Amino acid sequence: FGAVDQIAYVYLNDRFVGEHEGGYLPFEFDITPYLSGGENKLTVEVEDTLDIELAYGKQTHKRGGMWYTATSGIWQAVWLEAVPENYISALRFTPDLSGVLLEVSGGADKKSVKISTPSGEIALDFEGESARIDIPEPMLWTPENPYLYEFAVEGEGDRVESYFALRTIESKTVNGIPRLCLNGKPYFFHGLLDQGYWSDGLFTPATPEGFEQDILAMKDLGFNMLRKHIKVEPARWYYWCDVLGMMVWQDMPSIGDFAGTQLRSRDLDVQKAVKNVWSKDSLLGGTECDIPQAWKDNFYNEWTNIMTAFRGFQCIVCWVPFNEAWGQFDTPDVVKYTKAFDPTRLVNESSGGNFHLVGDIIDVHHYPHPAMNVFEAKFINVLGEYGGIGYPVPGHTWEIDRKWGYGKVKENSEQLMKQYEEYLEMLKGFVTTGCAAAVYTQTTDVEGEVNGLMTYDRKVIKMDIPRIAAANKQVIESMSK
Question: How far is 442 from 197, CA to CA, in rounded Å?
Fold first, then answer.
C-alpha cells in the first residue's frame, strides 16, 4: 500500500492479515499464508477519526483559512508482487561527488550490479550487503542538469532496477557567511511552499500526470526548490522531482496542536492533554508542546518511516521535523536523531520559529513582504515563508465568498506581478547580506486561499511566465554578486 489514511485493517479471505497506523506511510504484508488455490478476496477496513496524536498535517474537521478538508481511506496505489523466498527487499545509496555506496537488503549473499554511464557500462560482483562504486568522469545532479545513473542489482532469483544521482548538500562558510552548498558550491535556493492539494482530488490529482505537470510548471517559472509543506506525496512525485531537477525540503506532517486551533472542537480531556504556550514574538528558545509520551512515540515512528521510505530520492536535500511549533517537542533530541538517521542531508529544526539553535538552519517566516528578523552567524539563515499575495482569478476560485491571501488581495494580474517584483527586489538585499534560501507562498490556490501562482484547478498561471522566470533568475544570481 502506498498510503491509507489513517488506520488500516487488512483481511484476505476473511482472515486478519494485519493493521497499520499512519496516513502518510507506505506499508506491506506477506499474504502467502492466507492465499487459497482459487479466487482470493482482499478486504481493507479503514478508520480515520483525524486523531491528532497521529500525523494529520493540515486536515481538519472544520475547514477554513489555512486548514483544509480532511480525507480518508486508500489514497495511494495498491499493488501485489510475487517475489522469491530470498528477495531483495530494499536498496539504499549514499552518493558523493565521485561515486556511490550501494547497500542492498535481502537477496542472496552473492550479487552483481550493472550501471549505465555515458562512457559505458560498469559491472561489479560483490558479496554481502554493500559495495562502493566509483564512477569515472562523474556527472553531478543539479536542477539545471538532473543526470541520473540507471542500474540493476541481481541476486539469486531476484533482480531490481533503480537509479541514483551523484550530489552532495552541505553548509559551508563563504566570505564569512554560512551558505547552502550543492555539490560543494554555494547555491541559492529559491522555492515555493507546496501544500500538495488538488481541487478535484484533495490529496491527489485526477491523473498521475498531474504531478509531473505541476513540477514542470514551477520549473518554467524559474524555481529550483519546493518545500513539501506538512504533507508526504506518493513516490511518483519525488521521482519526477529527481528526473526534472527540482530540489525538495520535506516537512513532517504535524502531530499535536497549534495553539489550540484544532482542539477547540474537541472534548475538554483532550484539550487538557496538550499545552502550547509558544509565542510568535519569541522566536528563540520558546516553550514547546507538552504532549503525552505516546504521541511522541508516534512522531518518531512516522518520522523514521517517512525518512526510510523516501531517502532514496536524491531531490530531497533537507528534512524539516517541525513547522512553527505545531506539535513541537524535545527539539534537540529530535534533531540529533534525524541527523544520525540520515547524515547526508541538512536538518531545518523548526521552520518559522521556536529555535533551539540545533541543526543546520535558522528559518524565519515573514508575511507578506520578505524580512529577516533573526540572523544567527553560525547557522544557515533562510526565509522559509514569505509572500502569499492574494489574487482570485474570476471563474477559477474554489469558494465564492471566502477568499484570502496575505496583505491586500490584488484585483488583476498586473497588480500581482508588480507586487511580486517589488518583493524580489527587497529579497535581493537579504541574499547579499546572508539569506541562503527563500520560499514563496505558494504554488497554487488551496480551497479558500487565493495566494497561489496557479489557480486551484491548475488552469491559469496568474502572471506572465517569462517575466516571473526572469525575476527569479535575478534573485538566484544575486548571491554571487
Answer: 12
